[in-house]
Structures are given as structure tokens and as C-alpha cells.
Amino acid sequence: MTGNDSIIKIEHLSKAFGDKVVLDDINLSIRRGEFITLLGPSGCGKTTLLRMIAGFLKPDSGVILMEGSDISNVPPHRRPLNTVFQRYALFPHLNVYDNIAFGLKLNKVQSSEIETRIRKALKMVSMTDYEDRDVNSLSGGQQQRVAIARAIVNRPKVLLLDEPLAALDLKMRKDMQMELKQMHQELGITFIYVTHDQEEALTLSDTVVVMSDGKIQQIGTPIDIYNEPVNSFVADFIGESNILNGTMIKDREVEFIGHTFECVDEGFGHNTPVDVVVRPEDIYIIANTENAKFTGVVKSCIFKGVHYEMFVETDNGYELMLQDYNAFEVGSTVGMFIKPSDIHVMQKERTCNIFEGKMISSTDVEILGGQFQCADCGLQEGDNIYATVNFECVELMDNKEDGTVIGEVEFILYKGNHYHLTVLTDSGEKVYVDTNDIWDKGDIVGISVNISDLHISKRV
Amino acid sequence: MKFIRNIFTFLSRRSSWAIPYTLFLGMFVALPLVLIVIFSFTTNQGEFSLINFEKFVTQPEAVNTFVYSIGIALVTTFLCILLGYPAAYILSNKNLNRSQTTVMLFILPMWINILVRTLATVALFDFVHLPLGEGALIFGMVYNFLPFMIYPIYNTLQKMDHSLIEAAEDLGAKPSIVFWKVVVPLSMPGVTSGIMMVFMPTISTFAIAELLTMNNIKLFGTTIQENINNGMWNYGAALSLIMLVIIGITSLFSDSEEQSQNEGGII
Q1: I need a surface site. Which of A289, B141, B232, B260 has the fewest CB within 10 A?
Q2: Residue B264 clears pLDDT 50, i.e. is over it
Q3: A175 has a pLDDT exceeding 50
Q4: pTM of the predicted model as reported, rounded to 2 decimal places
Q5: d(CA A75, CA A28)
């Protein structure tokens, strides 16, 4: 269905608004005829990237190539692509027909052809006979259909869609998703779609680009992204998952939640710390505890329509999320097992915090924009150092004045028996913390490190 | 004691709060309007008659002044749009103007009394040795009413959804086409408001005309004022009524326009 030649190539694209870096060295190649989705939480840079492809923003550095030629500085009205805006952006002073005809008239298309093309576009979005309607009298869904018709009627090489379904209700959204997918097949043009809805991305796309913090985290087919997430962010963002600390004992054998499991992953080495991802639907639950790999007590059980969602506390004190067609009584002891192919092992992105800093006296060190006490290790004032702190040794405090430096909780990952937090300090560095306390995203916290937990080594 | 309590409950009812305003409106808006209508349809003996209107239609002088006034008002309004639209556009464009102070400077003359400004204009013309007359009259009118044109247009331009401009660019419109096909049509409610705020008062102005033309050019407002000053209340009232009807018709026209546009200026 799709050729292998790329229609858009993005190379080393970066953009900052003031001090805030919104896109950081983006590289992406988009194939002709592909349905590609930029997926990520709000503020990850996906809309900025789309607006740059459309031409509404200029990159700080890097280039956007379209069919081999650099379009980074071409104004939007001369780019052969069209956009469907999130808030529709229909012209309120024109009726449906004139809205759709806007681009065609500018391109000096003959009026007889304009009419047939508009008819066809309206038919494609199931809005036949709406030509003379005032756009303000249409419902949200109808307006979005007109907006799509207005874009596709110009036969762009690439159609950009900026969260086009975000303002519609769930049922309408599902219907429109199917229609968009069908439209993509009929038109055969490239769709670049921006969304924060992971389900929508998986449903629609040929390729999903998961973004976070202005960086591309993973590019792959929906199946790859779901089954083989490259890091804990992707695993957590796409679907529901249990993300756990584990140890790769040897090839095809991994230890987590206090048990050793057979798995299919190789090449991690011996006794390597890893992250393990198990999807909730991949944990099999049985009433019989004797034949089970491990056991646990059902803590909660909620009906979700097709399945029940349960939280189980395992025999070693880890909390797992499970999905099953059968309900199990809260408080009952159940048996569980996991198939080797359903255990997904990921390289740990990090095993401890490492900060760059320098000595300000023999027992004080400056890191994270603050002054921390450390044990005397024979280094002198002005020496550049690395400071390492284990995740569980970072202390967070409610009262931000109590900490040595101040940070904001940016990302929270539940790891079965503790939380793994990402805290962004005022100096712009990230501190990773393992804790049993419950924090919320956006909490402002004080950060401190005990003198004995701060390990200093010289940096050359 | 009971009487005081009754008064207190009466005053604390929300509908009672409207009483001062109702009285004010009745005394100073509704009653004078009624009086204008009564006076214009009666003779100075108090008998019903259409003689005042007959006088207006048959007297070429009054009709000529009326037509001339509308002409001056049209020219003033047109010049205000011509000068005010670009000013409002520049003020509302974030690339060209980032400060609220510049907007303030344009609006500032509205704070000063119209007579003071006009007297200053007379002094200015005197200082640079320019003759007073029709030119000075139009200058004075435009100078006085320009802020009333700029502000509503600036308001609509500033509230305009920027994604509409992006959508037009995206569909292949170069900047000049974006301006004429999207920005101008969408700012029409502001222009309409501006026209209402400039055209209507300029028809009935008389102070500016008196001061800036040394009483040589008569506007319709002057005619009304002269008649009333000379004790011809009934004829003056009829002339006022004619003007009110004309203004009423223009404002009805702009009302329906604004409702369909769904995005208003400042009135």
C-alpha cells in the first residue's frame, strides 16, 4: 500500500520559547502515504512540531525537507500541505461552500471544477447538501467534517491534523476515527496526526511517534510500541502496565516481585538490574493456588465493561494490576502466572542519580544549584566532581524551605511496591527518587540528601 | 417602628434598587422624547398639526443644511475609517506593537472635553495661519471622533481568533489576501460600531461647527439650536424628531448586522 520513499524528512530540529526547550534535536522520516501520529502528553512538543511542518513557526535550528527540498523558510501559503485545526478555524463570515472553496479559488481552479470537487469532498465527509449552511449553525462534529473537507479538497500531498477530535464526545470520536482511517485509505495521501490519546494513536496509525519533553522517545508500529516499549515512560503512557524493578539473572531468566521467571529476552548480561513490564491482561489469575507461579490477595475488583480490573497484593508485598473476564472476590487468595513471552524486559535508563558539581570546601559540595554537606574525601575547594545518590536516599519534604534545594514533581511511576518520581529542580536538573510516600504531579518539594548518602568522585 | 421596618423591607427588595434609575430615565430621557414628539406635531397654540414638517419640506434652507450635514458626517466617517483602520490594525498586531501604552495614547483624547479640544484646534489653526472654514471643520470633526473609530476596530481585531488567519495562510492565501478576505470581513462589526459612534454624533454637532467655521457654516445641529434659542420650539422639535428617526434607522440596520456577525465591537 505504501511506498518506501520519504515525503518529509526532519533533521536535527530544535526550538525553544525563551528558556524553555520545546523541541530538542528531532529526527524523523515520514514515508509517502503513511498515517503517522505524534503522541505525547501536553507540553511534549508535538503540536509545536506540527506547526513547524505547517510553517506557522520557524525552527531555531535544523531543517525540514519535503521531497528532498528544504522548506524550513517557505511561508505556509506556499507549502503543499493543509491543516485541520483543533478548534476547526472555519471562517464564520462564509458558508460551508465558500469555506471549502477558499483554497480552490485562491489556486485559480475553474469554477465548474470547484463545484464538482466540493461535492466530492462533502460526500467524503458525509455532509452532502450542507453547502449553503451557515457554519455557526453546525454542531461541533459537523464543523470538524467541514474543516476536513476544506483541507482535503485542495488535494494536499500531506494532511496535518492537530488533535482534530479532541473537542468531540466519545461516541462521535470513535465514529470519526473510523471515517478518518477510511478517508486515509481512499485518498492515499500522507496524514500527520497529533494527539494525546494513546488509544486513538494505536487505532489510527501506521506509525506512532511517542514524544516527551521535546524528544522522541520511540518510533514504531502500534504493535511494537505496545508490546516492546523502549523505556518506562512509553510503557506507562501507552496502555495500562505494571512496571517493576527486576534483575536479569542470565539469558532467558529474570527475577522480579521476589520470584524468578522464564522469559524470552537475551543479551542483558548476568545479574543486570532491569525494568520489567507486564501488561495487566497478561497476568493469568486462577482460584487454585497450588499450580500457580505465585499467589496474592485480591485488594480490589472493579467492573470495567468487558473485563474486571483487579489490584492484587502478591505474597512478597508487591501490588499488581490485573485484568480478567472473571471477577475474584476481594480478600480471597488467588494464584497467578505469566507466560514467558508476555514478560517484557527493558534496559534500565539509570540505576542511580549522578550530578555534576564542584567542591566549595573539603566538606561541602555545590550540586543542583545548592550547597550540600558531604564526608571529607580528600578533595579540595574548586575540584570538579560527580556526586552519586541512590534513588531511595533522596529525601523529599512537604515544606520546601526544609530542603537544601527546591523541585517540582514532574513524573510519577508506580513500581509495584514503591513510587519512582522524577523531580525537576530549579536549576533545571532531574532528580530521581524512590519513595513510599504519595506525591502528586506538580507538588513543590524540598530536596535534601543525608551526608552519608552522598558519594563524591573526582571529575576530570 | 413598624413603619420604619416596612420602609426597610421595601428598600431591601432588589426591584426597589431600580427606582432611582427609572426616575432618572423617565425624567431626563423618556419625558423629553415624549415632549419632542408632542411639540413637533403641534402649533405654538398647542393644536395638532403637521405644519412643522410641511415647513421643513418646503423650506429649501433647512433641507439643504440637512443634506449638507449628512454629507459632512459621511466625509468625516469615511476619513475616520481611512485613518482609524490602519491605526487599529497596527495597534492590534503583536509584531508591530507590543505595548499597551501606545493604545492608551490613541485613546487618550477621549478623556478631554470635546469643547476644550475644539478650542485648542482653533488656537492651532490660528497659530499656523490656516483659515477656518470647511477644511477646519472636517479636520476638527475627524480629530475629535477618530478615537471612537479606532477603539471598536482595535477591539474586534484583538479578539479575532488567530487560527483563522493561520487557516487562510494554510489554504494558500498570501498576506495581502489574508487581510482582504479574512481580517477585513471579520473586523466589520468593529467598523460598524465605529461608524455608529462617529456618524451619529457628527450629524448633530453644532459646537464644533460654530467654533471652527466662525459661525459661517451651518450644520443641522446648529439649525435646531438656533430655532430653539429663538423660541420656535415646535419647529425645533420637529427637526430633532427627523434627525432622531434618521439615526434610529441607521442603528436598526447595524443592530441586525451585528447579531448575525455574532461578534460585537463596543456597543
Answers
A1: B260
A2: no
A3: yes
A4: 0.80
A5: 21
Angle at B118 (CA atoms; ends B116, B124), nearest 5 degrees: 105
User: Beta A158-162 vs A81-84: how paired, if at all?
Assistant: parallel
Task: List chain A residues with CB under 8 Å of B262.
Answer: 92, 136
Opening angle at CA B205, ends B201 and B206, nearest 5: 170
Which residues in chain A are closer than 8 Å to B163, comparing Cβ atoms? Answer: 85, 87, 89
Say if A95 falls within a structural domain: yes
Percent residues over pLDDT 90 in chain A: 62
Query: Is residue A72 in some structural domain?
Result: yes
Q: For residue A62, what is its C-alpha cell?
A: 535544523
B23-45 average pLDDT score: 91
Name the strand (E) or helix (H) holding A360: strand A353-361
Please check whether residue A417 lies inside any domain of the structure. yes
| A56–B171 C-beta distance less than 8 A | no
Phi, psi of B36 (to 5 degrees): -60, -45
How far apart (Å, rounded) are the C-alpha atoms in residues A90 and A46? Answer: 23
Hey, what's the cell of A153?
479538497
8 Å CB contact of A77 and B167: no
pLDDT at A457 over 90: no
Residues A206 and A265 in one domain: no
* Amino acid letter for position B60: P
A387 and A335 within one domain: no
- The answer to whether A114 touches A101, Cβ cutoff 8 Å, is yes
Give the total number of structural domains in chain A.
3
How far is B242 from B40, CA to CA, in rounded Å?
10
- The residue to which cell 539473572 is assigned: A249
Cβ atoms within 10 Å of A287's Cβ, excluding its own: 12
Q: Answer yes or no: are the C-beta atoms of A219 and A209 closer than 8 Å.
A: yes
What range defines the domain where residue A324 resides?
Answer: 240-347
CB-CB contact of A58 with A52 (8 Å) = yes
φ/ψ (deg, to 5) at B47: -95, 145
Asked if the C-beta of B185 comes within 8 angstroms of chain A's C-beta atoms, the answer is: yes
- For residue range B53-92, list pLDDT tens digits in order: 888 888 888 888 888 888 999 999 999 999 999 999 988 8
In a domain, A284, yes or no: yes
Which residues of chain A does B166 touch, with a Cβ-Cβ cutoff of 8 Å? 54, 56, 76, 83, 85, 89
Query: Which residues, listed in sequence order, are joined to residue A324 by a DSSP beta bridge?
Result: A308
Cell numbers for B196, please give them: 455608529
CA A309 from chain centre, in angstroms, equals 23
**Would the CB atoms of A89 and B161 count as touching at under 8 Å?**
yes
Backbone phi and psi for residue A117, each to the nearest 5 degrees, phi listed first: -70, -35
